[in-house]
Amino acid sequence: MAHVKTVYDHIRSNNIKTILLVICFPLIFIALIFLFTWIVAPADTAFNTAISVAIPTFVACAVWLLISWAFGDSMMLNSAHAHEIFDDDKQNREIFRAVENVAMAAGLPCPRVYIIDDDSMNAFATGRTPRDASVALTRGLIKKLNNIELQGVIAHEMAHIGNRDIRLDMMLITGVGVTVFAADMILRVALASGHSDSDNKNSGVAVLLLVWLAFFVFNWIITPVLRMAISRNREYAADATGAQITHNPMALANALRKITTDARVECLDKVKSMSAVCIAYPGGPREFASSLMATHPPVEKRIARLESMAS
Prior knowledge:
Helix content is 67%, strand content 6%. The protein has ten helices and four strands, in the order ααβαβββααααααα. It has helices at 7-37, 43-79, 93-106, 139-144, 147-162, 165-192, 199-246, 249-259, 288-292, 299-310; strands spanning 82-85, 112-116, 123-126, 134-138.
């Protein structure tokens, strides 16, 4: 009989992925800078350049990660214009109770509950640990899904909390943000230094431009591919764990069918990094190229897997 993965299996799997991410990202980053710089400079110069660029970048990533660890959840909730609801709020008491009941079924502390005043259908979870996690639901999701479907969505978000996916998201979002900023600064310095006729300065500009090209490849090719592989598996795991929590895979399957008809959250249009944490892509229609690098698996495949669990 095939082994059925439990919540603890998913937590262990994500811990391993986090460790591999911590190891692979800096190694690939250093290797790219070395290889690109080696085109115009000797190997020892290329190696020294790679190290001199990598160290301040890693320090900046560590500092920004600490800031994100402390304030990342509130930053994400503010970006979504979400407001908290409470148990004594008569208008939203049923929503709070629904989250509380699913949390109990999942064996997790009840998260803080937030509402996003948008008529579209989407949701996300955030927080450092299960004890300080939050779940945000759009007003449209609450209105357009029935109670069973809403429980399926909440269970999916509770699965992300229980599987410790939020920590992985925070690391990815932080790292990409810092390296994109660093690449922009390097390009500006290279362009500002490119007006001199000095051979030494010209060779320095060439090195800077190739370092920027290494950043570009890392940010827009390597990172999306690694992130896609990790995020897609994580979404499948959250779907499966959520179905285990509710004992009703079709609840989430039916919810996903409805959500994909109107998942765009307008206030998140300019916050691309948050697309990975939502239950469905919160932007407009995806182009073919962007769908190849999507952090979510195709909805049809997610639904098919849930339906196979139900059968």
